Amino acid sequence: MLHDNRDYLTQLDSAIGDADHGINMDRGFQAVKEKIPTVANTDIGSLLKMVGMTLVSTVGGASGPLYGTAFLRAAMVTSNKNELYEADVVRMLEAALEGIKARGKADVGEKTMVDALVPAIAAMKEAEQQHVGMTKLLQRGSDAAEAGMKATIPLLATKGRASYLGERSIGHQDPGATSLWLILQALAETCA
What is the pTM of this model? Predict the structure, then answer.
């Protein structure tokens, strides 16, 4: 998903960033893909830890530390698990969000990936309470992340590289919110 959207993410980033988000995310997740066989027979926490460490070491800019921290925090709550249930996914994403907030000092409304992740978690929590099953839970989360991503367009960026543009950041979709939505969409499609 990130490879297929590499140019799109880079185009979004060229308007308000360094024009490298798609390139960096593709490079990082290609490195993850190459390492997956080395952790194929381990628990989910170990797999997510490998993803986090790989992203920190291969993805440039702020995205490497932010996504790396998100996956490392998710790894902590899935340690020794070999299966995930709906509640596990919600806890995993809540831990990822807390890691992103701690690392990036961002909150909702600041034109970051947080603007996509917060509504995704809220939608997934609601879906979990409704016992709709994993496939619907993930799709509702992805749909909410997409809405959150689109809601970044009119926002003034106050964090990250885009914040340097001030008012000129208004009218552009946040690349980090977009890559986060793509990751959740890939998860939903894979589950379906």
Answer: 0.95
